[in-house]
Design brief:
Layout: H1 2-27, H2 34-48, H3 69-74, H4 81-110, H5 122-134, H6 136-142, H7 148-160, H8 164-177, H9 182-196, H10 201-230, H11 236-240, H12 245-258, H13 268-274, H14 278-295, H15 310-319, H16 328-345, H17 355-366, E1 375-378, H18 381-387, E2 392-395, H19 402-405, H20 418-423, E3 428-433, H21 437-443, H22 448-451, E4 452-460, E5 464-471
Parallel strand pairs: 1-2, 1-3
Antiparallel strand pairs: 3-5, 4-5
């Protein structure tokens, strides 16, 4: 009877976890980012047999940071880029929803009365799933069409796995897709081996070494493949989008509050008392936020790089909420503070819900004006490549172009001049209004108006305008 009751409890929480994930993802269905279409273009090139290229005739490059993502996406790429993007969005939502159901089941198991005073408080478990439904950055990036939904799912499955080496390997797969997760994966695997291992210290140390290998192995394989194929172990984006510690610190601090859940883990005594699995997850989460600061954060909205570790953080909060580890008022206070942060962050959600609509309209409206272009230069190459799949794209940000990536400047201020456009036979230039640094430099060059003429203006909803310039 007790076993059947526990099973029903786990199923109920699993349904709650899946519902929380599906709610937040469907609420943010309209969100996407331009880089999602860059991944789609690489996937289409792979599916078409032309190799790792962002567009026809473009140089071979590793413009997709999660190297395994493009081959996986290639399986869905036998269609128009916008259709492939929709498929990628559905894939992200599905895998995240399934992983969240597993998270719910693990949370339900943690509340089982059979655990005695170590059983998590049921109201804390319910509150955690309710909080999960309101942390909209997770749903936004699961539905973005990027690899993030898959990474969130993998990180969640790793944290809730009962088997050490399975946990380590799945965490390693997440790090293979998102390099900045390697510290989190390694910390989670090693700390679980040390905290949960049985036997003498030497035996636990051996388990930690094996777990470390499992967690870092996939990351190292990807780095070796990248080095052999492209001449560098680090992603091209690391060169194209340089950042600094100051930006990283601001990013990590903002992500801490926007994703809300880490606030609920601010209980060192409860975590140290509960030890496993809450303590390893909490310490790994801290390692990840330090890593975000060190790598300089990210340029995408809604704390994308922080989202993969948030469901695991909620699981650690629930496990450490047991009466044996924490007082009820402390659990309620931390949950309330996290919920307050999530409620404040929700104000930013509506702005992202129309991105897909506006981006789709932009691509469709640009297909006519770009139909005759043979070589197009632009900063936002994802939508441009989707609108002109026949044309070679020159990436002014260097995200998909190793030569431009190596130029001085940030990813919107590379030192590209008109001479480089001429050398690459660019017959069409697409700029944004208001212009970014590299666009302003090109369009204010005294020679620009003699070489290019404004042929069309494209509307991006309420965000701004794009200008299409064609060579005279």
């Amino acid at each position: 009877m007790t076993s059947a009751r526990s099973r029903r409890r786990e199923i109920g929480f699993a349904l709650g976890g899946g519902a929380a994930a599906l709610t937040q993802s469907l609420a943010m269905w309209g969100f996407t980012v331009d880089d999602a279409l860059i991944s789609v273009r690489y996937a289409q090139s792979l599916a078409g047999g032309t190799g790792w290229r962002p567009s026809p005739g473009a140089p071979v490059s590793d413009g997709v940071t999660p190297l395994p993502w493009a081959p996986l996406l290639a399986l869905l790429s036998s269609d128009d880029a916008l259709v492939v993007l929709l498929r990628a969005k559905v894939l992200g939502i599905v895998v995240w929803t399934l992983a969240s159901a597993r998270l719910g089941a693990a949370i339900g198991a943690a509340t089982s009365p059979a655990r005695g005073e170590h059983a998590a408080r049921p109201w804390a478990a319910v509150g955690a799933l309710a909080l999960l439904a309101t942390v909209f950055p997770i749903g936004a990036h699961a539905a973005s069409g990027m690899e993030t939904g898959l990474v969130i799912a993998l990180a969640t499955l790793a944290a809730t796995s009962r088997r050490l080496y399975v946990c380590a390997l799945i965490a390693g797969l997440a790090a293979a897709l998102r390099p900045e997760l390697v510290g989190w994966a390694a910390a989670l695997a090693v700390l679980r081996a040390l905290f949960e291992g049985e036997g003498a210290s030497a035996q636990r140390a051996r388990s930690a070494i094996v777990a470390l290998g499992c967690s870092c192995g996939p990351f190292l394989v990807v780095a070796i493949v990248r080095l052999a194929a492209f001449g560098r172990a680090a992603p091209l984006a690391a060169t194209a989008k340089p950042s600094d510690l100051s930006h990283g610190l601001v990013y990590a601090l903002a992500a801490f509050f926007v994703t809300a859940a880490p606030i609920a883990l601010l209980a060192p005594r409860a975590l140290s008392a509960s030890r496993s699995p809450a303590a390893p997850i909490a310490l790994a989460t801290a390692v990840h936020f330090v890593a975000l600061a060190v790598v300089g954060g990210d340029w995408m909205p809604y704390a994308r790089l922080a989202t993969p570790v948030i469901p695991a953080a909620l699981y650690a909060f629930v496990v450490s909420s047991a009466p044996a580890f924490a007082r009820g008022w402390s659990v309620a206070l931390r949950l309330g503070l996290a919920a307050s942060a999530a409620a404040v962050s929700l104000r930013a959600a509506p702005a992202g819900r129309g991105v897909m609509r506006d981006r789709t309209a932009l691509v469709v409206s640009a297909r006519g004006p770009l139909a005759g272009a043979r070589c197009i230069a632009a900063l936002d190459v994802g939508w441009v490549g989707a609108a002109a799949p026949h044309a070679r794209i020159v990436d002014l940000a260097g995200v998909t172009d190793p030569t431009i990536a190596a130029l001085p400047g940030g990813h919107t201020s590379k030192r590209v001049d008109l001479g480089m456009l001429s050398d690459r036979h660019v017959d069409t230039l697409v700029t944004f209004g208001p212009p970014r640094a590299v666009e302003q430099r090109l369009t204010t060059d005294p020679r620009f108006r003699a070489q290019y003429t404004l042929s069309r203006t494209l509307d991006l909803g309420t965000t701004g305008l794009y200008f299409v310039w064609t060579r005279r």
